[in-house]
UniProtKB/TrEMBL annotation:
Identification of the protein by name: Multimeric flavodoxin WrbA
Lineage, broadest ranks: Bacteria, Bacillati, Bacillota, Clostridia, Eubacteriales
Keyword Phosphoprotein: no
Alphabetized Pfam families for the sequence: FMN_red
Span of domain NADPH-dependent FMN reductase-like: 1-124
PANTHER family assigned: IRON-SULFUR FLAVOPROTEIN, NAD(P)H-DEPENDENT FMN-CONTAINING OXIDOREDUCTASE YWQN-RELATED
Domain of life: Bacteria
Keyword Flavoprotein: yes
């Protein structure tokens, strides 16, 4: 049983990275082999629309023809049993890096047939961890969650059953007093970090554990 985590945050030990590590700990506690990929360590771009992955009888049919630092990871994902994605929310959406990675991973498996069927060839378990600076109340005033449903839809369709967790009101700065940040109440943020974030970590641990459960 192997699970791979894809960290779409530039901060390896930020909120997203911590939660992904907890999810991997959960998977390891169920006997899985784990691996973490930090996308910001790698040089790559999104899909270039070359369509080599769609070319009839082409050498790269169903796979990405671009050769760069994510090519080995795209290949590796064919061998895993579970994948867990983590991304901070930037301007209401996933980070550019994770979006570019998804384009490169998903588009080659998306067949332009009548059903847009999947060429991935097997079903794996998929988890998604989103981290938000805003609190739940603010989040409910936006349409971000609605927009994010498309990730679950795509991953569910092309890879397998997908489960998401939403972690809100994250601790963004080491010291709030050093930054212009009147939008936040620093002491409430700290309280939340101490009291609620450990619960979020437990949820991530349990998610990781579930993703590698033998079905
Ligand atoms: C460029 C940028 C844009 C952001 N935009 C949003 C946003 O639209 N909504 C939100 O809730 N938080 C936003 N945040 C806050 C982060 O999503 C949040 O603090 C997240 O947990 C950070 O993850 P990290 O600790 O893994 O870096 C933004 C942060 C940055 C740096």
């Amino acid at each position: 049983m192997k699970i791979i985590a894809i960290n779409g945050s530039p901060r390896k030990n930020g909120n997203t990275g911590i939660l992904l590590n907890k999810a991997l700990d959960g998977a390891a506690s169920n006997g899985a082999e784990t691996e973490m990929i930090h996308l910001y360590d790698l040089n790559y771009k999104g899909c270039k629309s070359c369509f080599a992955c769609k070319l009839k009888n082409g050498n790269s049919y169903g796979q990405c023809a671009i050769n760069d630092e994510i090519s080995p990871i795209l290949k590796k994902i064919k061998e895993v049993n579970a994948i867990i994605w983590g991304t901070p929310i930037y301007l209401g959406s996933i980070t550019g890096e994770i979006k570019s990675f998804m384009e490169r991973l998903i588009f080659p498996y998306l067949t332009y047939d009548e059903n847009y069927s999947s060429l991935f060839g097997k079903r794996i378990s998929v988890g998604l961890i989103y981290t938000f600076g805003v609190n739940e109340q603010r989040l409910e005033q936006t349409r971000w969650k609605e927009f994010l449903e498309n990730n679950e839809f795509l991953l569910g369709r092309y890879f397998g059953k997908t489960e998401s967790i939403f972690v809100t009101d994250t601790y963004q700065f080491d010291d709030y007093s050093k930054y212009v940040s009147a939008a936040f109440n620093a002491s409430e943020k700290l309280k939340r970090r101490k009291e609620v974030f450990p619960e979020d970590c437990k949820k991530a641990f349990e998610l990781g554990k579930r993703l590698v459960r033998i079905r």
